[in-house]
Amino acid sequence: MKRSGRRRKMSANLPGEFAKFAKNSKYLRRIWRDTKASLDDIAKCGYFSEDQLAQLRLNETDDQFIGRTVMQPVALVVLGHSCWAKARVVNELFGQSVLPVTSPVGDESQLTWRMVRFSAGNQTEISLALPNSLELVEHLAAYDQPWRTIPRADLEVEGEARKDPALSAAALEIRMKHPLLRDEVQVVATPCNDTLSFEQTYRRATEGCTPLLLYAFAEEAFTEKELADLYELKRIAPKTPVLFIRANLPATSELTESEQHARSLRNARLAEQVQLCTAYVDGENSGSEDKQALESPMQTEEDAPKSVITLPVTAQQQLCSMGFISKHFPEKQRHHDRRRPNVRCSNGCSPSSELIENFDDFACNVCIFVRTALQSLLVSAASLLNTTHLHCLRTMNIFILLCTYFTASVVQPVHRHWHAQHTQALNFELFYDLLYIRVGNVDSWHFRRRRKCCRAVRVLRCGCMLKNPTRNVFTIPGVIVDEGEQAAPPTASVLQICTSQIQDLVLGMLNAAVAEKLVGSMNCLRESFVGTLERCLASLEGVCKEDDCMQASNALKQILNAAYQVKVTVKTSSSLLWVLWEKMKQLVQTLPGRAPPRIDAEWRQRVAADMLESLSEWRLARCICSQFRERLRSSHEQFQAAMRQLEAVHSGRLERTETQRIKVRKLHAPRLARCALESTSLRDEILYGMPQLGRELGRGQYGVVYSSEPWGGRSPCAVKSVVPPDDKHWNDLAMEFFYTRSVPDHDRIVQIRGSVIDHNYAGGTTPAVLLVMDRMQKDLYTALRAGLSWPARLRVALDVVQGIRFLHSQGLVHRDIKLKNVLLDRADRAKLTDLGFCKPEAMMSGSIVGTPIHMAPELFTGRYDNSVDTYAFGILFWYICAGHVKLPYVFEQCQTKDQLWSCVRKGARPERLPQFTDDCWRLMEQCWASDPQRRPLLGDVELVLEAISQQQQEAAHTHESQQLSESICSSQQQQTGGYGYTPCRPIVPTKDKYELAVPVSELSVSTE
């Protein structure tokens, strides 16, 4: 009756453990698939390189481990060489005799059993299957009659069957309806005395399943074959825990005489084998000690190592020597630890192997072993997934920051684009003002430019007069020009060509001189302006070199070189009369009898001087300005077309980058954050269980806070229960959890210690997320209502500033600083909590969040930065200085939240109360300034608060000294009340104590 009760208990416990594992593995399988799908979507987006994607993904080993854990069925694999021991273990697992129990004292070396695999089925079926899952059409004894215990004939391999490879390797497949086999659980009993090696047997038994290893043996010590198997097992699966079970043999009094005689012979034979194997093992372990003994020959007999006693040897000693179990782990301690399996695997390490020496303890110990092993598998898989999630999210944060940088790098060129267009348009207007000359209206500006042209002509004239007269400037193709007194007189055509070349040379020099004067006289063409414009264009075009956007720089170069590309000819620069006069002179020189002039330096200077004298300043200015205007207009049109092309390229790039930011912020990061929340919650639930909720501590917009019993080794704890109604709230909660958990421990921040998802909340319709955090005593709202002292309030203000500064140093913005989100401990030190709206600046999408009266005006525009926390602190500091929780008068008049928002948007601020000091009021006004740029840095705010606190301490110190002085004076007056008045001396506060200020005239010096 006792045994049947134990079997019923185990049959009820083991299926429950497997059901929990199946439920959790199914949940973990969904997280695993969602993670891989998210990573595949990220890979398709092209945000990361192949090397970065390889770092984001799970490595192959971890991915295979998680896949085996969540996809493969669990199998209880019973190893060993004793058919009797394995049959007892399997029967105990099922709670019924499914395997025949052989004689416990028979010679089992001659007994060969097949591998037996039990699996779930709607009805009991039995068949022979090959390793490739093909069934053998073989008649079995179980087909002849109904059975409850498998016939031995179907288990044993005898006679001709041993010679047949198919029959000897076939396994007995049994499908039956049993609670233990639900949830795809299998039970595998390895073959006994087969021809396969242990490694082949192990691979075959564990193929396609997640094994839980049980090793059954019958004797007090392992035999030679069993030790060899254990060494192989240690080599094949070094980290896999094994439950060693000794199936106790019946007492000698319960055996017949023949069985007693067989047992004695068997024990003698086993003792010899054990002695040899143990001597070999102990020799290996004591080899180092023998070596040390040989190296120290001076040892005395007392110091000499004693001989190791190898007999009698036990299974525990053998397992210790092989490293399966610890040598310093007594049975009592193991039994104590088995009742605390969660604590034992809380660090995520694999559970250790166990030894059950008393078979009566098998029922409870196997349940604990199975629970611990399954929990370890789930914890390891969840930890690997969570590590991947956190790594991906950190990389996502880096990507978001890079995305913000890309957006800035796009927005900045857009500003540069506008600056380039504006600057070039300004330059064009100045150019056009220079070139726009209306007929009959020459203003003073044009008059100054005309004077510059005249000055350039005069300078050129002086240069021409001083020019070297021996320089030959004539290059006439096919004609040699002879100069000097002996030279032949030139012909009319040669003379005309030489005159034209001199005129072209003079006009070219004039072009350069006038262009240099014009360019040098304009401020917009100075190097500082042109250089800025060129750098802007280089930055704009550098981003899109592949798009062939270099036309803007070329157009700018043409604009800048327009003054140097003006061509002035004789017809356009000289007067018409002078041109006619020159034609007449050339005609007269060609008349017969007229001696042609000699080409020399004097003639060259005369021709150049005549050319310069003939210049018409009006025609010259009009010609230069006309050409300048046309070239500038064409270059400007080309520049505008190139800038429009640049604008289109950068606008598209900005849209693509913004699309990437939105996709990362709203899709990829929340999905991975939700996977991280689920994997962490599953791990915490397995390790620490579901937190036990106590009384309600408070409730907010998104959840309820309860007290909790100690959880995860921490006490006291508070649990925030949040029920996300839809995917958006799930994503927001997941991101809040990630940012909160990613914040390092800080004295001014309330830390979240863990999370658990309650899938049974509201009947299982809507899961509830339980966030476990440190429990505080009260919030600032309650403390102010209770009358918190002024020094303590100042200390709270400093704590809040330090907490906000720490968040900003981590790149986070709280966005919801208010009284309810400041918690106080027993010492009235403050900590910030509720990071639900806390996000990195790069992740802020401009959403309107927060509490209305604490919201900065720019929050309503959607463009803000971390200075909104400074504004909120200014409002919070008003409450701290006021010492109460009553709304400011300007906000108290608002009846609805919309009116309150409108009031805040218009820039309304709290009023000054009589108890405010000038320093406090000045700090408030600076913090809630309308312009975010005028708000002080929080480091400066902390310095001001420290100064105010120091002043308060000094004032309290002085007030205390005055009270002490008055009390001393009053006591002296009472003592001398009827005998006259004794003036009291003031008390001066010193560094360490209070001292009476005694005048020097009253000091007496003793001469004794």
UniProtKB/TrEMBL annotation:
Residues 691-945 form the Protein kinase domain. GO terms for molecular function: ATP binding; protein serine/threonine kinase activity; protein serine/threonine/tyrosine kinase activity; protein tyrosine kinase activity. Its EC number is 2.7.12.1. It is an enzyme of class 2 (transferase). It comes from the Eukaryota. One of its GO terms (biological process) is cellular response to fibroblast growth factor stimulus. ATP binds at residue 720. One of its GO terms (cellular component) is cytoplasm. Keywords: ATP-binding, Cytoplasm, Kinase, Nucleotide-binding, Serine/threonine-protein kinase, Transferase, Tyrosine-protein kinase. It holds the Pfam family Pkinase. PANTHER family: DUAL SERINE/THREONINE AND TYROSINE PROTEIN KINASE, DUAL SERINE_THREONINE AND TYROSINE PROTEIN KINASE. This is Dual serine/threonine and tyrosine protein kinase.
